[in-house]
């Protein structure tokens, strides 16, 4: 499978310095983690993804009737309970008689979409393409965008047009080489949103998500962690990130050539530590995009990829590692090669 084009949408930038929040220490912690701004989308995830899809298709010559499948992944609260995000995107493009896959796997959707896409792309009819769509839009009524560990949640969407390996093009393309994921299900409650589902469907009167327990405090409370338990948990997060990356790399069948690392934008120190342990210089990562983007959930990796290609930091001939960690608790990795065409 190869990626033919990518389009993304980020709407309104906001400075973290302008944030009014009841927990000033949390905002200071987020700033210390390297974040300067975040992005807010006033419209729906459906509209946001539609804009990204039209950008991805623009200039390719590909028409709606050429789209064979849409695979959509989402982090955050959907526009409506039970809505199928992949079909929402298809509705915006006026698609009918099309295959769709809808994933709601938190940030992990940024990896798991590729497994389905690679499978479907291998059976694409001649002249047909697929779309991989990932989006995050925070429902601030349900979730504090400043309250997830040491990150700040941004809204954004990104779409990739994908085709089978035999699609002919003279332009550089991204080839999917391998991928893998794993879950430690003991931590499924770590980042759950308490209200809006079947157990507690209604927001209490006067509820303000900004007063919820934050980050590590909430984890300590849910799992009755001691400080030593928390340190072991944080080590597990990093160790499993490396484990899944190495598992994906082993599938490629050759050593990666000075790879570029695209990691979930979960804080400067976390990415620096991962680069150090993977023996990758931090300049060959998406670390420098963190202050600008915030943490855009499952879109982090694909938006980073598009931005770094546009900046020419990623060059034809480069191998690329995509790596994410998400609620579940889930780790995933995928390997791409940027081919000269």
Automatic annotation (TrEMBL):
<dbReference type="InterPro" id="IPR013747">
    <property type="entry name" value="ACP_syn_III_C"/>
</dbReference>
<dbReference type="Pfam" id="PF08541">
    <property type="entry name" value="ACP_syn_III_C"/>
</dbReference>
<dbReference type="GO" id="GO:0016746">
    <property type="term" value="F:acyltransferase activity"/>
</dbReference>
<feature type="domain" description="Beta-ketoacyl-[acyl-carrier-protein] synthase III C-terminal">
    <location>
        <begin position="269"/>
        <end position="337"/>
    </location>
</feature>
<dbReference type="GO" id="GO:0044550">
    <property type="term" value="P:secondary metabolite biosynthetic process"/>
</dbReference>
<keyword id="KW-0808">Transferase</keyword>
<protein>
    <recommendedName>
        <fullName>Beta-ketoacyl-[acyl-carrier-protein] synthase III C-terminal domain-containing protein</fullName>
    </recommendedName>
</protein>
<dbReference type="InterPro" id="IPR016039">
    <property type="entry name" value="Thiolase-like"/>
</dbReference>
<keyword id="KW-0012">Acyltransferase</keyword>
